[in-house]
Amino acid sequence: MEITPSPAKFELHTWTNAGAHNAYDVSNSIKEWKELEIEMSREDLSGVYTEISSPFRFVMGSYDIIESFFNNNGFSAKAQMYIYLRKNDWTYEDPVKFDLDFTTYHKQDDEITVNARKGSLYDFLKSKGKIKVDIPVSDIQETKNFRFDRIPLQNEVEFSVFNEYKDFEVAYSDFGRLSIGITETNTDVLIKDKFMVYTVAENQEVVFSNPEENQTYFIKNTTNESIVCGIKMNLNISLSSSMYNIPSEIKTKDCYIQIAFSKDTDGNSTNIYSEYLGEIRGETPISRSIDMYKKVHVQPGECLYLFLRYRDYLSSWVHPTLFNGQITGNLTISYNGIESPVYLPVISPKVLIQAIVNRITETTSQYQVILEDFNVSNDKLFILSAESVRLFTDAKIHTSYDDFKAWMRVLGYEPVVEENVLIFKKRNKIFNNNSTAMQLSESDCAGLVETVNEEYIFSSVKIGYNKKEYKSKNGRYEINSGSNEYSTDVSVVNNPIELVSPYRADGYGMEFLLLDTKNNDETKDNKDDNDVFFVNAIEDQDVFTAIFPSAVAVPDDNIPIEIYTRLINVKYNPRLLVEMNKNLLAVASRYINFKSMESNYVIIVDGKASNDDINLLGTDGNLFSTILYEFASKNIKSLPDPLTRNGLVKFTYKGNSLQGFIKKISKNPVWETETTWQLYGAD
């Protein structure tokens, strides 16, 4: 006589520290099967994972096995429960496996209970995902370095001008030059060692032939290269003169003062700027305001001077000319500078996440990581630690699984755990409408309830990076130092979404860290030392180099375009990150309206301005609809296969063909109880 096999078979598998493996059929010594439920569900937008709802209750023969095994191995004991579900042909499917967590071991007189983990790898990621790990960069870096071709920086020195004349004697001179007093008031100089800057005393005779001894210049080019300077000057001049004991016929002679810049080359001066002030006669003052801006090329070794230039036709036998007054105002010198390239160790994202998983699971080869459809083009993403950017010799990267997952999420990827494999997939590949997880007939389904899924109806969007404040105003040119904010066309809910990367994309941040390291040794802490950066780079012979934008427009003529042509990670500015997340935002919205951005300037990349509104209509790869299906079915003998469980569940209800993606399934593996379903509706 043929005996109907049990609806489910339970096997206990144990492993000793020496690796010995034993399997026991414990189907007849597991208590209260009725309480057990296998659940398949998602965490947010991740792939579907499987868990058991209640602890395993071991009695009779399984009691003795578990007791002995725990006594020999303690809470770190390794064991799994295999549950085989019976198919319609009375054979068993491949087992659903659950790790036992012996930290939950609980023994009574006639029963031992042990909880099941949700899955060994999933459990590690869930319980230890927030833990920061420090990984030596040298252990995981690429064989090629990233050549960071530095970003041009604007440098600026501000001077205060103040010169006062009171009964000041001007001796006879065909051409006299008096230095004007200058005091340095503010310096925003990041690229140092370009100029030597002096504070100049007032009313000294300017001698071009011996600048180092005379020191009446205020800036000297100390490099072997020509430097383009912007000179901005605002001066207010008021001068008057009194001349005594001078014959009347001499008073009619010309007497004037000039103010000029000059630069020195081997003792010879070249006029840069001159303002004729006119003749100074008597006590009636000459008043003049000067507002000028000029670009000049300062050659190696050349100096810049500011002085009064006067010509006095009075003969030497008369008394000196006396004049009174003031020259006040300010003077600003600006120039672009760029440091030499540096070679920085970089890390492949796949290598990094594998190292993170190895550390939090304390294994080396048990778990595998896959980044699907990632870094497949010529331009790739690489990771840098802040300590590497600061050129530390023993640099470490300080990060966590949750940080990496959040970064990948901003790029449009979500995690999927399949037993011992962690896979990051694009969202539309996780919600795969080209694959069928299960087909249910009309007779399988009862009590369908349809509700609106508010979880993915967003009222606003914040996307980009954590805001970074820079000491230098150069940082205002950075486009990846903060987030963009948008409102959606949905006004009936208050449900904002944040897609903010914990990994930084701001090239200026790297630039400033390098400059800080140049000015301070590596023993000095920096608040950004634990940060993580990423760069969009391409292989260039024996190095990786940054991807610079090929088409960038800046609707502001005052911003140097050479700055923007050297920005890195333009492809990953907040506006373009929206493009990578359109299928999520389009679940319930037709468009999003730009509200604000934390960067300072609007840029246009490939025709898309960073402050554009965004149309979501027609988005490819929409994930699911705003409908949530809930229904019950008879006790289906099987569950969706792990290889297809992210696909569609198709069912018929009252003649209507419907479909959706698994949100949660609850099923008792043994008893003839109904299975409950929650599905994200799919069109």
Q: Write down how many β-strands occur, each being a DSSP E stretch of 2 or more residues.
A: 43
Averaged pLDDT, please?
85
Distance N terminus to C terminus?
50 Å
| Fraction in beta strands | 35-45%
Major β-sheet, in short? Answer: 8 strands, mixed
Total helical elements: 13
**Which structural category fits the helices and strands?**
mainly beta
Task: Report the radius of gyration as a whole number of Å.
Answer: 38 Å
Globular, elongated, flat, extended or rod-shaped: what is the shape? Answer: elongated
Outline the low-pLDDT stretches: none
Oligomer: single chain
Q: Helix proportion of residues, in percent?
A: 10-25%
Question: What would you note in describing this structure?
Answer:
The chain is mainly β and 683 residues long. The protein contains 13 helices and 43 strands. Strands 3, 4, 28, 29, 40, 41, 42 and 43 form an 8-stranded mixed β-sheet that branches. A hairpin with a 2-residue loop joins strand 37 (604-605) and strand 38. The protein is elongated and about 125 Å long. It starts with 7 loop residues before the first strand and ends with a strand. The relative contact order is 0.14. The mean pLDDT is 85.
